[in-house]
Amino acid sequence: MLKDFVKIDVPDDKELKTKLKEERDHLAALQMKLKDAALPVMVIFEGWNAAGKGVIIGKVIRNIDPRFFKVATMDREPSEEEKRYPFLYRFIKEIPEAGKFRFFDTCWMEEVVDEVLAGKLDEDAYKKRVHSINIIERQLCDNGYLVIKFFFHISKKEQKKRLEVLQSDKDTKWRVDEEDLLQNKNYESCLNIFERYLEDTNESRTPWYIIDASDKKMAELQVLQFLNQGIDVALANQKMNVPILQNTFPMDKPQKLSEISLEDKSISEDEYDEELRRLQKELRELGNKVYRKKIPVIIAYEGWDAAGKGGNIKRITEALDPRDYVVEPIASPEPHEKARHYLWRFWTRLPKTGHITIFDRTWYGRVMVERLEGFCSENDWQRAYNEINEFEKELVDWGAVIIKFWVQIDKDTQLERFTDRQNTPEKQWKITDEDWRNRDKWDLYETAIDEMISKTSTKFAPWYVLESVDKKYARIKALKIVIEQLKRKL
Amino acid sequence: MLKDFVKIDVPDDKELKTKLKEERDHLAALQMKLKDAALPVMVIFEGWNAAGKGVIIGKVIRNIDPRFFKVATMDREPSEEEKRYPFLYRFIKEIPEAGKFRFFDTCWMEEVVDEVLAGKLDEDAYKKRVHSINIIERQLCDNGYLVIKFFFHISKKEQKKRLEVLQSDKDTKWRVDEEDLLQNKNYESCLNIFERYLEDTNESRTPWYIIDASDKKMAELQVLQFLNQGIDVALANQKMNVPILQNTFPMDKPQKLSEISLEDKSISEDEYDEELRRLQKELRELGNKVYRKKIPVIIAYEGWDAAGKGGNIKRITEALDPRDYVVEPIASPEPHEKARHYLWRFWTRLPKTGHITIFDRTWYGRVMVERLEGFCSENDWQRAYNEINEFEKELVDWGAVIIKFWVQIDKDTQLERFTDRQNTPEKQWKITDEDWRNRDKWDLYETAIDEMISKTSTKFAPWYVLESVDKKYARIKALKIVIEQLKRKL
After folding, report:
1. A105, A129, A459, B223: which has the highest count of C-beta atoms within 10 A?
2. A396 contacts chain B (CB < 8 A)
3. Which residues in chain B have their CB less than 8 angstroms from residue A248's CB?
4. What is the pLDDT of residue A83?
5. Is residue A247 one of the residues assigned to a domain?
6. Angle at the Cα of B231 (from B227 to B234), degrees rounded to 5?
7. Residue B414 counted as domain residue
8. Does A289 lie in the same domain as A213?
């Protein structure tokens, strides 16, 4: 792509000015349409050092009201803190909300090509990175994001000239660092790496636009043209459906809920006390090891209302050092969460390495409550199984332990517990009208849950069912599974 | 993809029956919706030999009225005739019309992997093939086609068993050939080649669906499920806009029409006669060489009404052997042409090797009359520049010579000629009301033509302007250019 790229003709000053004005006005007009259509726009600027990315971002944003955009400056090494998350994490944190722009001053490309250049990524690791990036770009696009990708291109000679100009002035000298000079020196090998990356990530819905950046005004014009055109196309495509990809991950073969026996899944008081003590002690030690070995752990709880999730989680956390874990209770998304990719609020709640996050309800809301209440379209939730598997695969590949619990009770048990809550003043806060409404939809939920479990029980992140008519039984089982899975990883 | 693929669970007979009936009925119901929505559906079956592709196609079509589908049996070597066209040609010929199904019993994948296996494609040639396939699949998808791709997967053992069963019966013995046995023997190396191809062509809008074909009923069910789901999604996406890809082909820098001087572009009668004779003689000889060297030649004429295209073409054809060339006058598309990708009627009119096709008007109608008369959407014609460049690149890579002429006159000259036609009884058939209407839109056309020429003057297929106020001058210039370009290639 870069190698065949031909320099753009620069029109005469007058024509350039007219065209620039046209595009600037067009962008200014688009920002309100964007807002009305709730379209999130992610604009990624990559390219050669000293190609003028920052300058052009500065010019583009002048046409947009400050309420409608932010600039994410990612052109830096990840911090020590950020290194304790999946490599995509620091970028995903920054994705825009619906109706707004986010301009990325470099993004995941820069990190990957830098690592390749530094010899930190071998062929396989590079391919994995590219695979992850293609997945996240596709997911963003499928979930209604406009992702526009610019590569700022200048020649070796032009880059050298610019670096020399910067260096020759004591006020700008500081802006040229070792890496810039190295890139210019090794221009050809960088070019090969860039070229390959661009080809590997040039998808029909998230294509690359190469910007001839040898002339600043022309660079601005090209960026504005591609950006405006992209927004025009995206605005015409609201509520587009997306092909449902086949799930090609290796799967377990879980039982249906109706096939799971809840009888005889109980434990005596004495045995429970003894087991609880023993298992919590073991978990405490494993928790310490996990911390020292910097393993990230994700424990996800889903289950029927009143199935006993809270008490179950408590028996896990009791065994853990409070500094090492966090429980994330998941309710309906806040407005700023709803305005982003539905996995964003989980991405941003991930544990860092050595830590444990316990989700009390999870991203599976997409294929349960959001599906049944019509909070997303059919195409959205049908697509979500694969998107969720991809999300969990990314985390497992990062090194995380993922344990997913379905806390199971029968309908009668739920009724008993609901009634008990209703009749016990100190438990009344635990029961709401919504719980009763959900209960009315038990059968619909059961169908959805069976589908969910069958489509997301991957070999790398299977579901575990906790039979919780006897809550104590369920707690002991949960502890055992967590211990087993941590041991496996350690 | 194949390597991680896990066998599908077969439900019990009753459940399978119910599900099959559901999907069959759904497909039967979809065919009318398809027709109403004018959605063309291309279903590609690829996979291991003896995996049962043919059987399943047979079962799927039972649910569809014969008026709405055809089966394209491509699982054979291209004929000697077909080998004289670009490798995509025989497949593109078969693409479905709007509102209809076309089932491909193998398609371009089979041809490519067979050639790789036979050692006929080296790494570079393989990559080129894959690139061409990705382009055509994207173009089909962008132009409203639903392209569903199935790969029928069976294990080495299962394949061996099936081949043995076929061989053991004298009625089916003939169906097993050397290639089948060889594929089974070299199962692992075939697997690697298949795997790579699937990964190289697995695009988000035209993804692969792997069918576990070890059980026939399950294979049918999977195919029906993916097919129905795909149609449902596509029906929801009518008139979707598509991101306009950047044109990254190397470009010439042509003049605007208004910058082209028409003065002094004339020739004396005597000089004309002499030159014509000399050049036609030279072209005649070159025509023979082209024929013997099996070079395909495409000469494309566009120009203002009454610019003199017809007479110009005549001076070319006079020099050629009537058996070696054909002139294709291009009018509005016929219904069966309109119902397909707009380039289809040009793909199917390509010359075979050693032959010359002269197009009197061309695929550039998309960005002239179709644009200005609103026969296609803005997104359609904006996308077309790149699609056309891709099309011409494919032909040039195949080995074709492409010469594109724009026959240029000024507005006054056109008026003179129109008036002359009007007033001369034997020329009156040449002038219609439409010509006058087009003339009223001269300025709009001029803008569109300037854009067209600037966006499609690639290095490999540039436009040549023939100044045709003096028609004789234009004819001599055309002959010279054709001669020069043929010589270059020979």
Report:
1. B223
2. no
3. 1, 4-5, 210
4. 95
5. no
6. 140
7. yes
8. no
